[in-house]
Known about the structure:
Elements: H1 2-37
Amino acid sequence: MNHTIRKTDHHLEISFFLLRWLFLIVAAIVFYFLHQEAPVTYDWLEFGVQ
């Protein structure tokens, strides 16, 4: 029984690993397309740089 618990934990660890990378890729794509639609421009005077 102990072997099946370890095997299940290993599958769970792989699932979360893949889910984390999937989330990172999807987030990068979403932010890329949002930036293409409305690029952010900064006014450096707002940050105190003159």
